Amino acid sequence: IPNLNSSISVLILGMGGKGHAAPNLTDTIMQVNLNPASKKVSILSLPRDIWIEAIRAKINTAYHYGGFKMASDSVNSITGLPANYTVVVDFSLFKDLIDTIGGINVNVDNSFVDEKYPIAGLENDLCNGDKTYACRYEKLTFDKGVQKMNGDLALKFVRSRNAVGDEGTDLARELRQQKVIQAIKEKLLSSEVLLKPKVIRNLYDTAISHVETDIDRDTAFAIAKLLFESRDNINFLSIPE
Fold first, then answer.
1. Is the pLDDT of residue 2 over 70?
2. What are phi and psi of 63, to 5 degrees?
3. In this model, does residue 1 exceed pLDDT 60?
4. Nearest to residue 17, comparing CAs of 70, 69, 93?
């Protein structure tokens, strides 16, 4: 069990997983720092395209080439904060978790359209000779305001990167990821989840099936308790472009 008198740093890596063109690239990279004394949590999002000189590659390839250690060392070279633990999840967990809790309400800050959201499995489709390869893509439209999202829609919301304008940047994508995490947190702490043991059991089973980590069970429960105690003091941070 970790020493709860000192800060704990957890590196969270999100990858596409099976069915995606680059299943082992970690396009979502977050470093979570938990401070037991102040009951404060800081979540820093890192852009996937940061160049890491030590490995002569972008940071999102580190896990693919060198597992937990290379990923952790690469993030440490940017933040100066060594990770005590690492958690790797595939995007199916993200989708299944949201569906298990009955969807989430997300406040979309800006309307945007992404006409080139890639459809998994069609990356190499020749589209019957269509030189624009339109069959490989789905058009996404998000309107400003609060939207109820199931797992599939929320995943598209956070992964979209081809919108015209500011919403097409990696920074905007990171902010959308943080917004969805906040919405998940609020739903997890609601009576719809906390007061339903069956839902909690389903959440546990879903998480176990999609997670690779070096956190043992006792440590996981200790960290979960700390996160719950810090639920009203979670700060999201991003590295500007």
1. no
2. -65, -40
3. no
4. 93
Q: What is the pTM of this model?
A: 0.77
What ranges in 138-196 are assigned the alpha helix state H? 151-159, 170-188, 191-194
The H or E element spanning position 62 is helix 62-79
Per-residue tokens: 23? 């299943």
Collapse the DSSP code of 156 into the 3-class scheme (helix H, G, I; strand E, B; otherwise coil) and give the result. helix
Which residue in 200, 193, 188 sits closest to 227, CA to CA? 188
Nearest to 183 by CA among 86, 98, 95, 240: 98
- Cβ neighbours around 213 below 10 Å, total: 17
Angle between helices 170-188 and 151-159 (to 10 degrees): 150
Strands 234-238 and 40-45, by their bridges, are parallel
Residue 232, SS3?
coil
